[in-house]
């Protein structure tokens, strides 16, 4: 989209989008019935919400109906707590606009997810830019 070469860092980004969708039930960017130009502008110029924020917004916007349909059955508070912190940071690091600020490889991305699952410190940190 930005005219940069497609590399493994593009794969990291794509996997980050997929993980975001799996964790939240929605795409990281908000666009509906917009032109290709508008979608490109949104993706290039805006940052996605943290996954925990996306789940909270989804629950609020649907008064809990959607989160129940996703099989959460009142567990969206627990999901938000689990996403806050490490998982938010892992996903958002994979989705950074600047490829050089993402995980250096799919393997590094995978290892950070595994460290989180094992209760070990992760390398992803909240974006400070």
Would you mind describing this structure in some detail?
- The chain is mostly helical.
- The protein has one domain (8-117): Transferase(Phosphotransferase) domain 1 (Transferase(Phosphotransferase), domain 1).
- It is 56% helix and 0% strand.
- The protein contains 7 helices and no strands.
- It has helices at residues 8-24, 36-45, 51-61, 65-69, 76-83, 86-94, 106-117.
- Helix 6 (86-94) packs antiparallel against helix 7 (106-117).
- The chain is globular and about 45 Å long.
- The mean pLDDT is 83.
Which features would summarize this protein structure in a list?
globular, mainly alpha, 0% strand, 129 residues, single chain, 56% helix
Can you summarize this structure?
By secondary structure, the chain is mostly helical.
């Amino acid at each position: 989209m930005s005219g940069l070469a497609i590399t493994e860092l593009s794969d990291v980004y794509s996997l980050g989008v997929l993980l975001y969708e799996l964790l939240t039930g929605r795409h990281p960017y908000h666009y509906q019935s917009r032109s290709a130009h508008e979608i490109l502008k949104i993706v290039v110029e805006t940052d996605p919400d943290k996954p925990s924020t996306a789940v909270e917004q989804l629950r609020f916007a649907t008064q809990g109906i959607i989160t129940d349909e996703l099989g959460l059955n009142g567990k969206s508070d627990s999901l938000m707590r689990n996403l806050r912190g490490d998982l938010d940071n892992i996903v958002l690091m994979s989705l950074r606009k600047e490829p050089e600020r993402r995980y250096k490889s799919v393997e590094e991305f995978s290892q950070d997810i595994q460290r989180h699952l094992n209760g070990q410190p992760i390398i992803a940190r909240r974006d400070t830019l």
